[in-house]
Amino acid sequence: MAKRTKKDKTEVWYNTVSEDQDVVVSTRVRFIRNLASFPFPSNFKNDDAERVQSIIFDAFSKMENPDSYQSMALDNLDKNGEKILSERGLLGSSSATALITTTDGASACLINDNDHIKLSSFASGLNLKTPFERCKKIDEELQQYVQFAASRDFGYLSSSVFNTGSGIKSSFYMHLPSLSYSGEIKEVIKQIQDRGFTVADCYGVGNLFNASLGAYYQISTTSSLKGNEVEQLGNIFALGKYICELERKKRADYADNIPTVVHNIVVRAYSLAKFSILINLRDCIDIISCLKWGLDLGFITGIEDYELNSLLYRVQSGHLGYLLKTGSFSFEEDIEDDVELKEERLRAMVIKSTIEKINFVS
Predict the structure, then answer these.
(1) Taking burial as the number of CB atoms within 10 A of a residue's CB, which of 200, 256, 308, 324 is the most buried?
(2) Nearest Cα to 159, choosing from 105, 226, 112, 108?
(3) Crossing angle (nearest 10°) for helices 305-314 and 339-355
(4) Is residue 128 within 8 Å of 236, Cβ to Cβ?
(5) Which CATH superfamily does the domain covering 27-165 fall into?
(6) Closest to 219 (Cα-Cα) out of 126, 306, 287, 297
(7) Residue 4 phi, psi (nearest 5)
(8) pTM of the predicted structure, to 2 decimals
């Protein structure tokens, strides 16, 4: 199978090759902005929310390539639509009224969340440059048509002091199975927090790694008040590189010293994926994590990191719900009237089709 190059175009941002993808699943950059002359959303009165939304919609319609954006009012979304947007990290609090996304899904503008505007952009792997430049371009275009609330002393103003200043927040979605399995993740988390960053479980607490489910973690900046854009991005980039090296070092240690133990974990995960008829989401996250661990350890071939990272989105309930609604599937008679079981059946089918090309290295 030919290896995909970085120049290849794909339909979704998370299904692309990028740097440090063996450890970093994705990168997100956010810009927080508020319109001058309007209160923050928590203090809206009368038709403030509608007026802010209308102003932002109008600004996007005047921007370069307006057809590259699509807008939606969130109160028109069905529950499955909300699930999909939430799973992709595009929704915020219940107060948000609208969302504008680029047609490729890589960037978005959430309206009337805790602040008037939350620009977000995503990239595969450890890549701050691309999402930052996307957000920056949208931000600069918007400022041709709207005035943002700002202060000479404090920078851009926000409903939270932590988002005041540059208004930039950045985060990485990382896979750290070696550090988690060894128990060293506790010390790593302490180091991250001591540097002024936050760490959160992506999918809740798991059992296999005695830590985050699937050993997936989100590492984020806590404040945009100190330093300029370059310094803030540089600090989290350096942290990302440091964690990558820690994970690779521990991974190499496992490959050299206890390959049988880890190899067994990978084989069991592969067997579950290959032979299971129904798979719930928690088990699926663990399976994907173990297969990715096996790939990065060199135990399996035939699949790429970006494919397993992409699978994390494809097995989510919202995505599967969309497939069930729009596709044509034939299910076993005893589960055809049970939505939850049909979702688990479809999840098993999705992961099974993805791992068919996996080979174990002898």
Answers:
(1) 308
(2) 112
(3) 170
(4) yes
(5) Glutamine synthetase/guanido kinase, catalytic domain (3.30.590.10)
(6) 126
(7) -70, 140
(8) 0.91
Token pair recorded at residue 248? 């690779």
Q: How far apart are CA 179 and CA 67, in angstroms?
A: 45
Per-residue pLDDT of the chain (362 residues; tens, 9 = 90+): 233 334 344 468 888 899 999 999 999 999 999 999 999 999 999 999 999 999 999 999 999 999 999 999 998 889 999 999 999 889 877 789 999 999 888 999 999 999 999 999 999 999 999 999 999 999 999 999 999 999 988 899 999 999 999 999 999 999 999 999 999 999 999 999 999 999 999 998 887 776 899 999 999 999 988 888 899 999 999 999 999 999 999 999 998 888 899 999 999 999 999 999 999 999 999 999 999 999 999 999 999 999 999 999 999 999 999 999 998 889 999 999 999 999 999 999 999 999 999 999 97
CA distance 166 to 172: 19
User: Which is it for strands 24-33 and 107-111: parallel, antiparallel or unpaired?
Assistant: unpaired
- Cα–Cα distance measured from residue 175 to residue 186, given in angstroms and rounded to the nearest whole number: 15
Rounded to whole angstroms, the Cα distance separating 173 from 183 reads 19
- The percent helix, strand, coil of the chain (3-state, each to 5) is 50, 20, 35
Tokens linked to 141: 């275009």
Which residue has 């309007």 as its token pair?
A: 38
CA dist 93 → 65, 89, 115, 118, 356 (Å): 29, 12, 10, 12, 40
Asked if 109 and 16 touch (Cβ cutoff 8 Å), the reply is no
User: What kind of architecture, by CATH, is found in domain 170-257?
Assistant: 2-Layer Sandwich (3.30)
**Which residues fall within 8 angstroms of residue 19, CB to CB, at 6 or more apart?**
125, 126, 127
